[in-house]
Write a structure and sequence with these properties.
Blueprint lengths: L24 E2 L9 E6 L4 E6 L10 E2 L9
Parallel strand pairs: 1-4
Antiparallel strand pairs: 2-3
């Protein structure tokens, strides 16, 4: 259940406490480089990424860190 006092963050620096998403780079929304979109399930406190388009083998993963999304 959503709560105003619930805090969530992603710490990608520590490899023992993070996952492959720590390798995602920043790219502005709408640019050809931005190939991921974040999805949020506030009730289960889950965040995941989905591809916005086909991603070629060896291509870097990019997401717009400045895009607005939240737990609501």
């Amino acid at each position: 259940r959503y709560s105003e006092d619930r805090i969530a963050y992603i710490d990608g620096e520590d490899p023992d406490r993070s996952s492959w998403v720590r390798y995602i780079n920043n790219a502005p929304t709408g640019s050809d480089e931005c190939n991921l979109i974040a999805r949020v399930n506030a009730h289960r406190c889950r965040v995941w990424f989905e591809a916005r388009r086909d991603i070629a083998e060896g291509e870097e993963l990019h997401y717009d860190y400045r895009s607005s999304w939240g737990w609501r």
